[in-house]
């Protein structure tokens, strides 16, 4: 399986701090995506980074990708209470027809 | 209106009953997916369909079946529900022409099998 694994499983920070979560995967990929899930709701796409990219920004989000280490990180800067959610990485493997989701990091931002 | 809708949103059923979960989308996407989510296990793919005549098994298809009635509709059936099928079920869509395979999720159906 090329399912990703997020680390840490849970993260609790104060509002205003930065949050970093990591994803590792097993096989070569076309791209890697990050999704957010508010409690019990559907996932929402945040950002996509292609295998030939090393870093990408979107608002307060910064994603890095290291294909040699098969890992990615998601940084949320200046966190807000509304960022409290679970965050999942998903990989689109070469030759695969669908995404493989990781197990998620549960982020709690304390006001 | 939401682009991807699921019905019902919550369902309680008994072991052995047949149930159907329905998904509709107005995004015009050709690809549709069914996932289940269990605590601590992330999302696991049950079935996916790339067009009306295409059905593919995912990671955990045993005990489930699907029907792609139209481009906009993809239903998931549990022929004989069992308690370990208690989970949160999500439908998702994607556009093969968009590149990158970004998926758009419905709000989920919470299923409890007694």
Structural topology:
The complex is a heterodimer of chains A (111) and B (114).
Chain A: E1 5-7, E2 10-14, E3 19-24, E4 29-37, E5 43-50, E6 55-58, E7 61-66, E8 71-76, E9 85-93, E10 99-101, E11 105-110
Parallel strand pairs in A: 2-11
Antiparallel strand pairs in A: 1-3, 3-8, 4-5, 4-9, 6-7, 7-8, 9-10, 9-11
Chain B: E1 4-7, E2 10-13, E3 19-25, E4 31-38, E5 42-51, E6 54-57, E7 64-70, E8 73-78, E9 87-94, E10 104-105, E11 109-113
Parallel strand pairs in B: 2-11
Antiparallel strand pairs in B: 1-3, 3-8, 4-5, 4-9, 5-6, 7-8, 9-10, 9-11
How would you explain this protein's 3D organization?
The complex is a heterodimer of chains A (111) and B (114). Chain A is mostly beta strands and 111 residues long. Chain A has no helices and eleven strands. In chain A, strands 2, 4, 5, 9, 10 and 11 form a six-stranded mixed beta sheet that branches. Chain A is globular, with a radius of gyration of 13 Å. The model of chain A has no long low-confidence stretch (mean pLDDT 92). By secondary structure, chain B is mainly β. In chain B, strands 2, 4, 5, 6, 9, 10 and 11 form a seven-stranded mixed beta sheet that branches. Chain B has a four-stranded antiparallel beta sheet with strand order 1-3-8-7, with no helix packed on it. Classes of the chains: A mainly beta (111), B mainly beta (114). Chain A binds chain B through residues 1, 3, 31, 33, 40-45, 48, 50, 88, 90, 92, 97-104, and chain B through 4, 33, 35, 40-45, 48, 50, 56, 58-59, 88, 90, 92, 100-108, 110.
Summarize the structure.
The complex is a heterodimer of chains A (about 110) and B (about 110). With about 110 residues, chain A is mainly beta.
CA radius of gyration of chain A is 13 Å
Supply the number of helical segments of chain A.
0
Q: Compute the gyration radius of chain B: what is it?
A: 13 Å
Main interface by residue count: A-B, 23 and 27 residues
Uncertain parts of chain A: none
């Amino acid at each position: 399986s090329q399912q990703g694994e997020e680390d840490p499983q849970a993260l609790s920070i104060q509002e205003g701090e930065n949050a970093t979560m990591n994803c590792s995967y097993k096989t070569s990929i076309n791209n890697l995506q990050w999704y957010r899930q508010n409690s019990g709701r559907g996932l929402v796409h945040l950002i996509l980074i292609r295998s030939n990219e090393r870093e990408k920004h979107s608002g307060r989000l910064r994603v890095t990708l290291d294909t040699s280490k098969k890992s990615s990180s998601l940084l949320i800067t200046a966190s807000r209470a509304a960022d409290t959610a679970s965050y999942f990485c998903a990989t689109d493997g070469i030759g695969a027809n669908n995404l493989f989701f990781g197990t998620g990091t549960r982020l709690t931002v304390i006001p | 209106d939401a682009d991807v809708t699921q019905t019902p949103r919550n369902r309680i059923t008994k072991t052995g009953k047949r149930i159907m979960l329905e998904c509709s989308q107005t995004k015009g996407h050709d690809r549709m997916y069914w996932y289940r989510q269990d605590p601590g296990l992330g999302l696991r793919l049950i079935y996916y369909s790339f067009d009306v005549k295409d059905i593919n098994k995912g990671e955990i298809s045993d005990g489930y079946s699907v029907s792609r009635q139209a481009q906009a509709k993809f239903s998931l059936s549990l022929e004989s529900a069992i308690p370990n099928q208690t989970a949160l079920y999500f439908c998702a869509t994607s556009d093969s022409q968009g590149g990158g395979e970004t998926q758009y999720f419905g709000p989920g159906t919470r299923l409890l099998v007694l």
